[in-house]
Each structure stands twice: as structure tokens, then as C-alpha cells.
Amino acid sequence: MSIPKSFQTDRLLVRAVALEDAPFILELMNTPEWIRFIGDRNVKTVDEAKDYIKEKAFSQLDKLCYTNNVVIRKSDSMKLGTCGIYHREGNDIPDIGFAFLPDFHGKGYAFESANKLMLQAFEYYGLSELSAYTLENNQASRKLLERLGFDLIGLGTLPMNDDELLHYHRNLDF
Does 149 reside within a domain? Predict the structure, then answer.
């Protein structure tokens, strides 16, 4: 079975991040919301964004066939945000994550892309469960995870990060 590198919903095209997305990734990673809820990754130039994509996204895509994806509105080809599945060293269960430019919050794009991505994870990547992590004060992310069917299972941390995060889990049983 061939594993697709992109997928669509009614409103969105979701495809693996590419080097051409570096200016967009730079903008997204430097929004106040990203820095507050995800953390400053010290990516301040387009070249640093390209390096980040190569190091973080491409290596995982090559090994696992899934990675961070750019979410694009089909009606006007506007890049809205990202939604991806991440396999972090030291964690047995991959986790889902998402981030959108502030102008596109609250419009259902994160739910639409994440919901379809979970189906892709089950059908094409052979995943039977996913984790998710968020800060306790990130109410929007918490509500979205709950709407996506994730259950809060406790506190956790991610590798290379000491922040205490809420840890969510969901079985993929479509």
C-alpha cells in the first residue's frame, strides 16, 4: 500500500512540510502564541527555518512516513498552520501537535486537519494510539484535544524539555 504524502478535507490541503515553507514556518514559530505555548526555538531567519525543517521534519518523514504538515486553505492556497505527528526519542507513543497563525484560530481548521490526520495515522501509518501534550493554561488546545476524543491521563514531560505538561491519550479505533 502506498502512503500518501498529502491529504485533503473539504476545506483544506494538508501536506508534508517542505523547504519552500521556511518563510511561513519562521512566521508561525515567532508568533506570541507559539512562543508562549510551545516555546522559543530560536529560529529567527529563513535559513534557520530551513535547517529546522531539515533536522526535525525530513529525518522523521524518511524513517516513519509521517511528520509535521502544512495546512493550506484550498479556496485561496493560504497557509494557515501546521498539524503533525511526532515520534520523540524516549517516548513509545507518537504525539499529535498543531499550531495556527492567530488569524485562523477558532475557525475549525485545527479540528478538521487533526481529525483527518488521526484517520491517516490509523489507515496508513499503522498507529493504534496517539499522545498529546499541552500546557495547563492552554485552554484552546485542551478543548481541541478533548473534542478530538483524547483523554487526560496525567502529567508528563517531553524529551529535552522540563516543562510539566498535561498528557493526553487516544486509541485510534476507527
Answer: no
Question: The domain that contains 16 carries what CATH number?
Answer: 3.40.630.30
Is position 174 within any domain? Answer: no
Q: Cell numbers of 66, please? A: 509521517
Cα separation of the two ends of the chain: 19
Longest dimension (CA), the chain: 41
Instruction: Evaluate if pTM is beyond 0.85.
Output: yes
Q: Residue 84 in contact with residue 97, Cβ under 8 Å? A: yes
Sheet architecture: strand order including 12-16: 6-8, 12-16, 68-73, 78-86, 95-100, 129-134, 165-171, 151-156
User: What are 81-133's pLDDT values in tens digits?
Assistant: 999 999 988 888 999 999 999 999 999 999 999 999 999 999 999 999 999 99
Give domain status of residue 153, yes or no. no
**pLDDT tens per residue, range 86-97:** 998 888 899 999
DSSP-assigned states of every residue in 1-49:
-PPPSEEE-SSEEEEE--GGGHHHHHHHHTSHHHHHHT------SHHHH
Domains contained in the chain, number: 1
Range(s) of the domain holding residue 35: 6-126
**What is the C-alpha to C-alpha distance for residues 34 and 24, in angstroms, rounded to an integer?**
13
